[in-house]
Design brief:
4 strands, 239 residues, 4-stranded mixed beta sheet, mainly alpha, 2 domains, Helix Hairpins
C-alpha cells in the first residue's frame, strides 16, 4: 500500500500540473479577444473622428461660399452708391454695406476658426492612425506568440496525460476511483501528508491513534475532517 500511496502522490502531481496548464491555456483566448477588441475600438474612434472632420470641412466650404456671396453683395451695393439721388438713400445704402461687411467679417472669422480646428483634428487623426498601425503590428506579433504558447501548452498537457496513463496502471482501480472523487470535491488536492499529527489539507488535528496508523502507510486512511487520503512522510523522505 505504501507504494500505491507514493504513486498516487505522483498522479496527483501530474493532475495538478495538467490543471494549471489547462488554466493557463484557457486565459489565452481571452487575452487575444481583448487585443482584438482594443484594435476594433480604436478603429471605430478613428472612423468617427474622420466623419467629424469631413462634416466640419463641409461646413468650412459652405462658409467660404457664403463669404464669396457676401463679398459680391458688398461690391453690388458699393456700385449702387453712384446711382443714388438723395442723401437719405445714400446713408441707407451705407448702412446696408456696413451690415454686409460686418456679416462678412463674422463669416470670415468663423471660417478661420473652423480651418484651425480642422487642421488640429487632422494632426490628431494622423497621429492616431500611425499609432494604430504600429499597435496592429504589435498585436499581430503578440497573437502569434500566444498561439504558439497554446500549442506548447497542448504538447505539455498531452505529455502529462500520457504519463498519467502509465502511472495509474499500477494503482488499484477502487483506490483510483476514490482518489478521483476526492480530487474533484476538494479543489484538486486529494492526497495529503500528516505532520506532527496535523492534516496538511485542512490543518485539523488527527486523533493520536489514527496518526499512528497513518504513519504505517499500510492502508488507505481518510482525514476525519476533510476526507482527503492521508499518508506519512518522514523528514528524510520529504527532503
Amino acid at each position: 500500500m505504501e507504494d500505491q500511496l507514493k504513486i498516487l502522490c505522483q498522479v496527483q502531481s501530474v493532475d495538478m500540473r495538467t490543471a494549471e496548464s489547462e488554466k493557463k491555456k484557457a486565459v489565452i483566448p481571452q487575452r487575444i479577444a481583448e487585443m482584438d477588441r482594443e484594435i476594433e475600438e480604436t478603429r471605430e474612434r478613428l472612423v468617427k473622428a474622420k466623419e467629424l472632420i469631413d462634416e466640419l470641412d463641409k461646413e468650412r466650404k459652405k462658409k467660404e461660399k457664403e463669404l464669396d456671396v457676401e463679398k459680391e453683395q458688398v461690391k453690388k451695393s458699393e456700385a449702387k452708391l453712384y446711382d443714388v439721388k438723395t442723401n437719405k438713400e445714400y446713408q441707407a445704402l451705407l448702412k446696408e454695406i456696413e451690415a454686409i461687411r460686418a456679416a462678412n467679417d463674422k463669416t470670415e472669422e468663423d471660417t478661420i476658426l473652423l480651418l484651425e480646428q480642422i487642421e488640429e483634428m487632422k494632426k490628431d487623426y494622423d497621429t492616431s492612425s500611425a499609432g494604430l498601425k504600429k499597435r496592429e503590428k504589435e498585436v499581430e506579433k503578440q497573437k502569434k506568440d500566444l498561439h504558439k504558447e497554446m500549442e506548447s501548452v497542448d504538447d505539455v498537457v498531452t505529455e502529462l496525460k500520457e504519463g498519467r496513463k502509465k502511472l495509474v496502471t499500477a494503482i488499484d482501480k477502487s483506490l483510483l476511483e476514490r482518489y478521483d472523487i476526492v480530487y474533484r470535491n476538494r479543489g484538486g488536492l486529494a492526497v495529503v501528508s500528516v505532520k506532527n499529527g496535523v492534516c496538511m489539507g485542512c490543518f485539523m488535528n488527527i486523533p493520536p491513534q489514527l496518526f499512528i496508523e497513518v504513519m504505517k502507510n499500510t492502508e488507505v486512511i481518510p482525514c476525519p475532517s476533510c476526507n482527503r487520503i492521508l499518508y506519512y512522510e518522514d523528514e528524510e523522505e520529504e527532503a
